[in-house]
Design the sequence.
């Protein structure tokens, strides 16, 4: 029996995702053996610095990608939002798994929603995208940088004077924490990170054998949506450490994509939208509309 090695980060959420992929593959191919290989990435090791200050693309993917290129791994499971839009030479995303809820959620200590928080309340997040949009919505709130896995962040909330924290709904739901959600943030207030909610499976381009196995895990509508979002991000040359948000939906065969770029202080926030059937074209169109509205200048100031 062939042993197929699945690479993953070793956080609880990453392991959940990898185990889910492993269980799906085992169900489809009971004659094969799928083994999990866990490792720490640079982003897992540096926890005392905001991600935007480390400024390295592939913070949560590089070690796994090295494993693929060295043939120590046969496939690697990632949160798609952690993946740079340009992959290392020789690697490709073989499957985009069906997306979980793509939006962000607010977890509060006392059940008070964002709109009802007293002025000066402290929100925990180290994401520039989340901070910028929240500053635009509630300029009177304060922010505290928050790093670490989800359990660490939840514990920091309980042990601090933060009013609440912002997390991706997908991770919260996958860990079974729905009862901790105070509110799902509407797209009007908070546009998601590119690819948020989708699990991506990366392989070496020359592994057609693995690609064939993974075809059953690819979800067509998710792929169309996230390809459009990634095309927008690629055009803006953003990484996960810039205040860019994007979310696409497929409605009756049409990809509808909304994009957002904001200044760090939240004062300038621009949005654009487009629809069509080709994800690359739709992504480029929204990016170009954002550029026409001043996205390049906003992002240049941040960089």
Sequence:
């Amino acid at each position: 029996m062939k042993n197929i090695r699945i690479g993953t980060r070793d956080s609880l959420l990453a392991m959940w995702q990898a185990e889910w992929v492993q269980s799906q593959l085992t169900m489809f191919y009971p004659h094969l053996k799928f083994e999990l290989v866990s490792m720490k990435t640079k982003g897992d090791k540096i926890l005392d610095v905001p991600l935007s200050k480390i400024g390295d693309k592939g913070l949560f993917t590089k070690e796994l990608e090295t494993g693929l290129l060295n043939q120590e791994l046969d496939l690697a499971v990632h949160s798609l939002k952690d993946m740079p839009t340009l992959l290392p030479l020789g690697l490709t995303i073989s499957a985009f798994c069906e997306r979980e809820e793509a939006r962000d959620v607010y977890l509060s200590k006392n059940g008070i929603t964002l709109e009802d928080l007293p002025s000066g309340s402290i929100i925990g997040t180290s994401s520039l995208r989340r901070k910028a949009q929240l500053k635009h919505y509630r300029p009177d709130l304060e922010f505290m940088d928050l790093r670490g896995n989800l359990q660490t962040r939840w514990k920091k909330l309980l042990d601090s004077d933060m009013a609440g924290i912002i997390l991706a709904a997908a991770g919260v739901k996958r860990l079974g924490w729905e009862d901790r959600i105070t509110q799902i943030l509407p797209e009007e207030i908070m546009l998601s990170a590119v690819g948020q909610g989708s699990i991506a499976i990366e392989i070496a381009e020359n592994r057609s054998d693995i690609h064939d196995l993974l075809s059953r895990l690819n979800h067509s509508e998710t792929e169309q949506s996230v390809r459009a979002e990634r095309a927008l991000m690629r055009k803006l040359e953003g990484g996960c450490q810039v205040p860019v948000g994007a979310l696409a939906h497929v409605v009756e065969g049409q990809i509808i994509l909304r994009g957002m770029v904001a200044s760090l202080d939240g004062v300038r926030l621009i949005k654009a939208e487009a629809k069509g059937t080709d994800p690359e074209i739709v992504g480029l169109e929204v990016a170009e509309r954002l550029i026409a509205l001043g996205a390049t200048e906003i992002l240049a100031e941040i960089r």
Remarks:
- The mean pLDDT is 91.
- Residues 220-303 form a domain with the Double Stranded RNA Binding Domain fold (CATH 3.30.160.40).
- The first strand starts at residue 3 and ends at 9.
